[in-house]
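Extended Data, panel c. Modelled sequence:
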Amino acid sequence: MSTSDEAPGLLRSAVRRDIVDTLANLDGSAREDGLTAREIGAQVGLHASTVRFHLDQLVAAGLLTSHFVRSHGAGRPSKKYAVPAGNLHAADTSESYAVLAGLLAEMFAERGPDDTPLTAEQAGAAWAHRHAPGIVEVAPSTEPARTAGAWLSKVGLMIDVLRDWGYTPSLRTEDGGRTAEVDLVHCPFLPLARTHPEVVCAVHRGLMRGTLEVFGEDDVELSLTPFVEPHRCLAHMTTRTPFAPTRGART
């Protein structure tokens, strides 16, 4: 099944990408069978009617298929949605590479504080400072977070930027919310990352660090471990900003 010219634009939406990723990550026959709008909504945290709006667009663009399944006994058949055979990420790979190519070109056009070309990590951070504010849908505080919830909301905005680049991130927390681990799955630059991880990983470290800086988090320990699994890299970040005492700790 071929995709339309609208497919890359549709997948720039975090919601629609989450829906597609949910269906793509089903195992075995479940991936072929698919899920109903209600089942998808339960997994992505949206009402079924909202999910159907996005599903209709994804089906029209050829990114998903739909079919009816009759359950045992009487009753109306259920409409299920599934991922068609083929590479889901081919639709937006060229766009992702265009962004990366432009960023790498800027490494040689711009100069650092000592009048030398930017490193790959500096170029990634510079891109984030210019573009991250226009990607997120809210205007966050630029003050360093003083609670776990505020800090993790900044990490969530960084995840939105990573989604815009074509990643499928997932988040875990440790140390009372001070530390966040982010899985980066489905790297849009996988072939290049395998041959030149020192460049691609440095760009993405800069992208994450620069995005957090834009949102006021410039005192963060951040590392990126490539290929902890064949299609998964792991980012680890801890804020150094002291959190305010909890209510129970106040005297």
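The mean pLDDT is 82. This feature is highlighted in the accompanying rendering.
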